[in-house]
Each structure stands twice: as structure tokens, then as C-alpha cells.
């Protein structure tokens, strides 16, 4: 291109690499304990909520990382 022997830039169609995202930070032990202690287990819905939080945390399926 600079020397005038090419009409088009051959690199114009090359896609730029995607910028990676940083990994989420893990919750501290204190944050996990506070999260699991938040639902009122005396209430059936609170007991359900705590159980769901425990399953999500134990399996790594939930969005318990921030």
C-alpha cells in the first residue's frame, strides 16, 4: 500500500482480537456467612430461600460472585 503496488489494504478485513473480561472476585467467608444467614429460617419461604442459596453456592451454579 505504501509503495503503491496494492490498491486495497489486505489487512482491512482482519478482525481485531476481543478484549477479555476480568474474572469476578470470590465472596469472602464472612460475606458467604452473611448471605446464608439473611433468610429467616423460621418462615417456610425463608427456609426455602436459604436452601436455594446453599445449593447455588455449593454447586457453583449461582451468581454468588460479584
Main traits of this protein?
mainly alpha; about 40% helix
Task: Decide which structural class fits the backbone.
Answer: mainly alpha
Large-scale geometry: rod-shaped
- Name the helix and strand elements from N-terminus to C-terminus, one letter apiece: HH
Radius of gyration: 25 Å
Number of helix segments? 2
What distance separates the N and C termini? Answer: 48 Å
Arithmetic mean pLDDT: 84
Low-confidence stretches: none
Tell how many strands the DSSP assignment holds. 0
Largest sheet: none
Proportion of beta-strand residues: under 5%
Helix content: 25-40%
Note down, in words, how this protein is organized.
- This protein is mainly alpha-helical and 66 residues long.
- The protein contains 2 helices and no strands.
- The radius of gyration is 25 Å and the shape is rod-shaped.
- The protein starts with 28 loop residues before the first helix and ends in a 7-residue tail after the last helix.
